[in-house]
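At this stage, I put together a protein sequence along with its fold in token form, as given directly below:
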Amino acid sequence: MNRKQKRELHQRQSTRQLMGIAHITPHGIRTETGERVFYLIRPDNLSVLSPEVIRSRIRSLTVLLSTQPSLELLALDSRESFQQNKEYYRHRLEEETAPEVRALLERDLAHLDAIQFASASSREFVLVLPVDRKAGVDEATLRQLEKTICDHGLCVKLAEEHQADVTMFCFWYYNVDKQKKIPNPLEEGFVGNGEEFFHRFLIKTIDKEVFHAPWNKLIKRELLADNQIEFDTRYCIYEDACFVAELLSKAQKIVVNQEMYYQYNVRSAGTLITSFRENFFESVTQLYRNAMAYCAQYRDNEPQVERFSRMYTGLVIMHLKQISCRKELGREDRKRLIDKICGSAEFMEALDKSGIRGRKRLICMLLRKRRYRTMVFLYRVLNKLQGN
């Protein structure tokens, strides 16, 4: 086999093949030389510990490694590289002449440098137990070793394979205009079946917006293929949330990781959500339909139905404000769009279920009485008071 053939073979190999992994086990991996079991370490924040406590931690780790000589300690550095992204921005800066655009490009380039610096020092720590292929090891022995390690003062957990259909995780918001990073974690995680998730954890993920998007989820390919779940191309907004509602309705095993692994960049204004879209109402109505179909699978679903109804009516009321205040819309077009909303039996049903309070309740009352002009007038006055 010549060099070119070897390179082509190398390119066709999967990540597992390149790493020499024959099989993913419930608590680690199996290679040609044997099995590796992983214990995940939650490191202490040394900056808040006294020198005496730090010395105690070091002694405990030394004793552990001496009494368990087969254990290996891995310190995993962040391997993210933004070099190609940075080269792209530098190339754009060389070509761009508009000062405003150059300022934005320079800001984004500086942000990448900041991310690179922050991630360079972030590490994860893992204890690895090599297991002889012939001898093997049982679950009780692994759990006993987990307890022994914890007794030495280390906070560890045996790695587990959940075989989840969907795994979701939290994220940071990053306001690009203000260069401000806002954490958005959940207080706890979740592991369970679809019905347990629906009753115990769904509303928490909606409130934290962990539910809405596909980019913070790992999805088993078979779940999509077997149920023919895909994005609805008829809609240009909220098609991702429609997709997620259908996805979760089919998932048998769901895992929620409360840690933050993704940064979602937002701007102070001008996003897809705040921009006017004429088919916005149709898009969010499809989201509501998918959500109601999801809720219909389970009994005692009143809290979930109310939460989805409140989400839907809140989005429609936001759209009504856009319709009322958009100068480019003529009176007839404005009336046509509002008539479409008020003539929707689904929207009126959602209004009754949503339990909306405050200023939105007044808007709902005007909609039910079809007092369109009063609603448009109130929105325009409010818009002027807000300086828009």
